[in-house]
Each structure stands twice: as structure tokens, then as C-alpha cells.
Design goal:
By secondary structure, this protein is mainly β. About 5% of the residues lie in helices and about 40% in strands.
Length: about 350
């Protein structure tokens, strides 16, 4: 009799445990899923989607089908800034899917935000548990892309799917639409019956990671009475992904000769595909370095490519020997922004 009571108690505890597990968000207890800075499942509450302000489609007015669809308007446009980087949480949208009957909708305005530069402005980056499904449809309800791939090639410039810490990462570069047909609906759902998976997404410029690459060395020489040297070029590509843009370029002093013959000199740096150099800097002295910052990072120079350097504004001392030659040798480090998931 005593054994029966113990067995009954054990079954009761087991059933309770099973019910509790069914209510836990997917992977919440697995440390391998919570060590990424892109995982916000420990930040969002289970009712995170309910906390967004929503609109309800009346049909033709919002160009959302079907009528009565509830959706969140995506106003925050992910953006890259050199001088005022915000945390990735600032532009993020995300929530838990509470059961397999729930659909969560977000409306994107896939406009042409900028026609200048090389950093794409219409990128959808999704970071989600494997159980999360998504579809992106155009204004007429036709599917453009989903977790399974691209459905309308004319609407998508680039699609990539990777895995990060057990999460699915989708990097999707959209082709912008004309203003009158730019509305697109992003829908999240799940087929899972025993998890409550989580997702986050960003729309705008790519979500970026800061990285560095050694660009090699260069040498520049200028002969008195010339004020400028010829330019020299360095090709930097090794280890840099295709979807990456210049953040800063650092030139470290390696050596110089005849520096006593000049009062000062300036160094110019031109980024890959740029038509003009960045603001010039004083040539660094022994043990020092100078940093070139691309203040127009929204237009972004690609990190892979040809970098050009030139000595300019060389100020010779009055007693410098005729035909004296000043030489500067430097080492280049490229700090760049790589698109996450690309």
C-alpha cells in the first residue's frame, strides 16, 4: 500500500514537471542558446508581442490582406553610425510565439532609403529559434521569402541562412519598391506544440560586428622642393568578408628618414571605390599612429579593395639640402564592420 502511494506521488510530480516544461520558452534552460549578444529571450517577457502598439487592417487602405489583420508597424530603421553607435537592442523587434495557432505580424515599408554608398539600407536580419517559421509577403499577399528560401527572385538581391549558437540567422537584402507598393508583411509562426520559440529581427542597414585586418606596409618618399609624393596603393582583402565596410583605418609609424629636413607633413588616405581622400592627418612620429575615420559611414566604403596613401603639405626647412629626400614607412590596420549573418 505504501509503495502504491509513493508511486502515485511520483506520477503526480512527473505530470507536474511535464506541464511546467510545456510552458517554458524554447531553449530557455539551455546555456548554449543564451551566450550570444543577439539572443534576447532572457530579456523579453512571454507577452512581448502584446506590448507592441498595433493596427488592424481595414483592407484596401493599408494594402494588407486579409481585412482584419492585426499588425505592428516597423518604424525603427536599423542604422549604422560612426560616432553614435546605439546598442543593437535599440532597433530590434522580437517576441515569443506562445503556441502553434498564433501568428505575429509586422509591416515593413521597403522604400529606397538611400541611393548613395555601398551599405544596403533594406536588409532584414532575423535571429530565431529553429522552431520559428516566417514569411514575407508583398502588398498583394504574394510570398517573397521565407525560412525555406526565396520565392520571388526579383524582390531579393541576396539571401543567406546560417546558424549561430543553435539559432537560425537569416540575412536578406531586399530590392526597394516604389512608394505606392512598398508595404510588405512579415509574419512569424511555429508548428511546435511543446515549445514557445523566440525570435528577434532588424530592418534597415545590416547588423554589424567590428573586426580588424592587417593591411600590410607602405613607403612614401618626397624630394625637396616638392610638397607632395606620388600616391601608393595597398590591396586589402585577406580574411575580410564580402559584406564589410570601412570603420577606421590606422597607420602606425614604422620608420622615416631625413625627418630633420622638414617641419611637418600630412598624410592622405583614400578608401576603396572612393573618389576623394578622407581628411588628411599629420604624419605620425616614432612610436605613434594616426587614425582615419569615415564620417560618412552611412554611404560606406567597402573594406575589401585598394587603399591609397600620399604625403602632402610637406614643409621643408629653409636649410634643407637641395634634392633632400624625406621618406615615411607605415603599417596599415583596417577596422571594419562586417554584416552579421551574411
Amino acid at each position: 500500500m505504501k509503495k502504491r502511494r509513493l508511486y502515485a506521488r511520483f506520477l503526480g510530480l512527473l505530470m507536474c514537471a511535464v506541464m511546467c516544461v510545456g510552458a517554458v520558452p524554447a531553449h530557455a534552460a539551455e546555456s548554449t542558446y543564451t551566450d550570444s549578444r543577439y539572443d534576447f529571450s532572457s530579456v523579453d517577457t512571454l507577452d512581448a508581442y502584446d506590448q507592441y502598439e498595433k493596427k488592424v487592417s481595414t483592407g484596401e487602405a493599408e494594402h494588407v490582406s486579409p481585412e482584419g489583420t492585426e499588425y505592428v508597424v516597423v518604424y525603427k530603421h536599423n542604422s549604422v553610425h560612426t560616432m553614435q553607435n546605439r546598442p543593437i537592442s535599440f532597433y530590434r523587434y522580437g517576441a515569443f510565439l506562445r503556441d502553434n495557432s498564433e501568428e505575429q505580424n509586422f509591416m515593413l515599408y521597403n522604400l529606397e532609403y538611400s541611393s548613395v554608398g555601398t551599405i544596403p539600407q533594406n536588409v532584414l536580419t532575423i535571429y530565431a529559434d529553429p522552431e520559428v517559421n516566417f514569411t514575407l509577403t508583398d502588398r498583394s499577399g504574394k510570398q517573397i521569402v521565407s525560412q525555406n528560401g526565396v520565392s520571388m527572385a526579383s524582390k531579393v538581391d541576396y539571401y543567406n541562412k546560417t546558424i549561430d549558437n543553435g539559432h537560425m540567422v537569416y540575412y536578406i537584402e531586399m530590392n526597394p519598391d516604389p512608394t505606392n507598393v512598398c508595404q510588405q508583411m512579415l509574419k512569424f509562426s511555429t508548428d511546435s506544440t511543446n515549445t514557445q520559440p523566440h525570435y528577434s529581427f532588424w530592418f534597415g542597414t545590416p547588423v554589424v560586428e567590428e573586426r580588424s585586418a592587417n593591411g600590410g606596409t607602405f613607403s612614401l618618399s618626397v624630394r625637396n622642393p616638392n610638397k607632395s609624393s606620388l600616391s601608393t596603393s595597398i590591396s586589402v582583402s585577406s580574411g575580410i568578408p564580402q559584406k564589410a565596410w570601412v570603420h577606421t583605418v590606422v597607420v602606425k609609424y614604422l620608420s622615416s628618414s631625413n625627418s630633420s629636413a622638414i617641419w611637418s607633413a600630412r598624410l592622405k588616405a583614400t578608401m576603396p571605390q572612393a573618389t576623394k581622400p578622407l581628411v588628411d592627418r599629420s604624419v605620425p612620429s616614432s612610436g605613434a599612429e594616426v587614425e582615419f575615420i569615415d564620417y560618412t559611414e552611412a554611404s560606406g566604403a567597402p573594406a575589401r579593395g585598394i587603399y591609397k596613401f600620399q604625403l602632402t603639405n610637406v614643409d621643408w626647412k629653409y636649410n634643407a639640402a637641395t634634392n633632400a629626400t624625406y621618406t615615411f614607412k607605415g603599417e596599415v590596420v583596417v577596422n571594419y564592420l562586417a554584416a552579421f549573418g551574411a
